[in-house]
Amino acid sequence: EQARRSMDRLQTAQESLEEARRKAESQEVAAELAAEQQRAAGLEEQLDGLRADLQAHAEESEESARSAARKLEAAQDETSGLELRAAGLVAAEGEAQARWEAEEQQACALRRDCGDLRDQVEAAQECQARERREFEATQQAEARCASELDQQRRQTEDECRQLRDDIASAARAESAASKEQARAEQHARQAEADRERLMGQLL
């Protein structure tokens, strides 16, 4: 919008210069007007170049921000999956503990009520040992999952720091683009002031 207004002011200045040139009777004034028009054309080309640079910087900053957001979302999804897996292992551990306690109670009941049935008691003890092994295996699996989750969290934190750095870089690029736009506007205002001064001298 600033560039468009600058172009409008530039066109108005050019029209005013053309009118002044038509009114001028001396060749010297006409030559000065032609030089001023050439200078205005140069400023217009410079303004077009600055506007193209601003557009390129804006598009680059926008793409960097979108890429950083996609990476952050993927890291969060992966972390959520690991947390769900850990919760499942904790639930499995609880079930194994409950089964082990039930088998222990059954073994105690068999020892109290059927002391002479040693084979059945040994079978119950074997079942208890198997449940204990399953319980221990579940604990080991939980420990491995916790280690993987901790490692993934550290990796996610590193990725988040990198994403914050990317976002900061995008912000710096956007700030640089704003500065370029401010310089372009300053050039346009200077050009307009120069034309108005020349018009005042001519009139």
UniProtKB/TrEMBL annotation:
Residues 27-44, 168-179 have a biased composition (Low complexity). Transmembrane segments: none annotated. Residues 1-80, 145-203 are annotated as: Disordered. Signal peptide: none annotated. Residues 48-74, 145-167, 180-203 have a biased composition (Basic and acidic residues). This is Uncharacterized protein. It comes from Zooxanthella nutricula. The lineage of its organism: Eukaryota, Sar, Alveolata, Dinophyceae, Peridiniales.
